[in-house]
Amino acid sequence: MSWLHANGDAGIWPATFYAGRADRPAPFPPLDGDARTELCVIGGGITGLSAALHAAQAGMRVTLLEAQRVGWGASGRNGGQVSPGFNWSPRKLAARLGDDRATALHRLSEEAVRLTRDLADTHAGGARFRPGILSAGFTEAEVAEMAEDAAWADARLGTTRARLTRAEIEAAIGTRAYAGGMLDRTGGRIDPLAYALGLAQACVAAGVTIHEESEVRALDGTAARTERGTVTARFVLHATNGYTPGLTRPTAARVLPINNFIATTAPVPDAGDRTVFAVADSRFVVNYFWWSADGCLVYGGGESYGKRFPSDIRGRVRANLARVYPELAGVELTHAWGGTLAVTASRLPWLSEVAPGVFAAGGYSGHGLALAGLFGKLAVEAMQGARARFDLIAALPVPALPGGRWLGGLAAQAGMIWGSVTDRLRT
């Protein structure tokens, strides 16, 4: 069974906190027969929808094929956090790649946040961008390292992050679990499903043809074959991230799917005055969360590495939540769900022209909500001959998994499991 079909009913959005609040559109018809177009986008997540929208706005004929529903995958299930940067800090990027490349990459990541906010404001008012994202550390040493990274970036890149103490964090979000952290007000959070659905409607308005329940079974050059037809195009963008990386071999060699889990509490009494900025902490398997305006805690934490979700997602998330909010260990969890994202060996994202006219993006390693929209746009720029920004990302060191996909995947999974063990030992 593939990652695409391992969990949940086909063609139905999972019962997430976001889906319960979404204005769900009517389904788009499956592909039925053969078609020709200029750009065929495979995948109806943020990467694919952004690419389709930008291509259509540039005058290209676009067909988008989605195996389930638009926004069905990680794009519509994630924690909603939109932050500048990559998995590597700007200081680490500079040490490994040089100051000039690190600066250019950080500027692109800042553009990714602005683009996400602009697209949400223009096409998805229900996404409700809320500014502010806190990087929180459990120990003073972790906070000191965060502060050093922030000072480096502030001096060289002009960023402005504020250091918060344990008491300030407690006053803002109601927990003493963290020794301190760094607050970045340029990032924030949105409702990811509302964002994806808004982009889909914008695509339709721009002339994009969307087919749902149209899984691409094979890609032959720039011809995408589904069960009921084939779309032949001048360009193809493979944008399925963790769900069907095997459609392009170089992507399959580099992108490793993993599962992550989120739960939402019932409204917590006296929580309405807690700050609404998002939080991501210093664990290897990150805890990430935010408080809604009506006092619900949307909390993500915990991973699994097989295709199937665990039977007790609530229990898995509750154990992580209780380490940060022990007083909420017994709180009612109204929603609990899983999603499949993807990482790479270097934890840097993958963007490449993998064959003539065939582009691929994925492996965002936890930074996909912001970067995906930009990567879709950059792929379209490259198709139109403006490759400089695309090539800057494509040159990131994203090696194939050592030992091939099977052995390399096992080794990467072992490393992530060890990281989660060290998390439990120190928190």
Reconstruct the topology from this structure.
Elements: E1 35-42, H1 46-57, E2 62-65, H2 74-77, E3 81-82, H3 90-97, H4 99-123, E4 130-137, H5 140-157, E5 161-165, H6 166-173, E6 180-189, H7 192-206, E7 209-211, E8 218-220, E9 223-226, E10 229-238, H8 249-254, E11 256-265, E12 278-281, E13 288-291, E14 297-304, H9 313-324, E15 333-343, E16 350-355, E17 358-362, H10 368-383, H11 388-394, H12 404-426
Parallel strand pairs: 1-2, 1-10, 2-7, 4-12, 10-17
Antiparallel strand pairs: 3-6, 4-6, 5-6, 8-9, 9-10, 11-14, 11-15, 12-13, 13-14, 16-17
**Gap between N and C termini:** 35 Å
Mean pLDDT: 93
General shape = globular
CATH superfamily of the domain at 130-186 and 257-342: D-Amino Acid Oxidase, subunit A, domain 2
H and E string: EHEHEHHEHEHEHEEEEHEEEEHEEEHHH
CATH topology of the domain at 130-186 and 257-342: D-Amino Acid Oxidase, Chain A, domain 2
**In percent, how much strand structure appears in the residues?**
15-25%
Fraction of residues in helix: 25-40%
CATH class of the domain at 130-186 and 257-342: Alpha Beta
Number of helical regions = 12
Can you tell me the residue ranges where pLDDT is under 50 for at least 5 consecutive residues? Answer: 418-423
The CATH architecture designation of the domain at 130-186 and 257-342 is 2-Layer Sandwich
- Extended strand count: 17
Protein name: Gamma-glutamylputrescine oxidoreductase
Domain FAD dependent oxidoreductase: 39-381
Pfam family, one: DAO
GO molecular function: oxidoreductase activity
